[in-house]
Design a protein that fits this description.
Blueprint lengths: L1 H5 L2 E5 L5 E6 H9 L3 E4 L6 E2 L1 H5 L9 E3 L4 E3 L3 E4 L14 H7 L16 E5 L14 E5 H7 L4 H4 L32 H9 L1
Parallel strand pairs: 1-7
Antiparallel strand pairs: 1-2, 3-4, 3-7, 5-6, 8-9
Length: 198
């Protein structure tokens, strides 16, 4: 249970309070401890140093990190003290991120049968030189993948719902699917919706 709390995502803001990344709770607490970040209270936007944060009593229903002598509230948002740039992160090509980009939807029939019934399809089959890349891989349900087989979408008469592209990086791609409600004060709903459609 302790390790699960320490692996929860924490939104990282730069000094201008722009989202620049996501860290685990354990990493964010280390940054606060060594002074490279401050914890942001999403309720009143107050900044806390380590000593100030450690003095706050956790609510009964909120997650905590337990130490030998105390219980520490879990930060959801931190602000870096010296970093003011916006990084140009790229989204790692991975199975998990293809699922996020394609919104757990078959890119041929539009169905959402569940993760177990979805596969990664190479638009240009590997037998014809297709590579494993953002621009050539899409989610396909088992039925569509079997029907398309070793053909291109054109040859199979199965047009794609949308052209596969490399998505723009957003904190969503770093969270393993978790969405923290308090982040909406720092990331607009439009921001989440745009990145989900990338």
């Amino acid at each position: 249970m302790v390790s699960a709390v320490l692996q929860r995502p924490t939104l990282m803001l730069n000094r201008n309070w722009q989202p620049v990344g996501v860290a685990t709770v354990s990493r964010s607490l280390v940054m606060v401890w060594n002074g490279t970040a401050r914890i942001v209270d999403p309720q009143d936007y107050q900044l806390y140093s380590w000593s100030d944060w450690a003095k706050l009593a956790p609510q009964d229903d909120e997650p905590v990190v337990r130490t030998v002598s105390s219980r520490l509230r879990v930060p959801e948002v931190i602000s870096l003290t010296r970093y003011d740039r916006v990084p140009t992160n790229t989204v790692t090509f991975s199975r998990r991120n293809i699922f996020k980009r394609d919104r757990f939807t078959c890119q041929y029939c539009g169905e959402q049968p569940g993760k177990e019934e979805l596969t990664i399809d190479h638009v240009l089959p590997r037998s014809e030189g297709g590579t494993s890349s953002w621009e050539n891989c899409v989610l396909a349900c088992v039925d569509c993948n079997s029907r398309k087989a070793n053909m291109t979408p054109h040859q199979a008469g199965m047009p794609l719902l949308k052209k596969p592209v490399r998505p723009n990086w957003r904190p969503f791609y770093a969270t393993r699917g978790e969405r923290i409600d308090s982040w909406s004060k720092f990331i607009s709903e439009a921001y989440w919706n745009v990145e989900l459609q990338d």
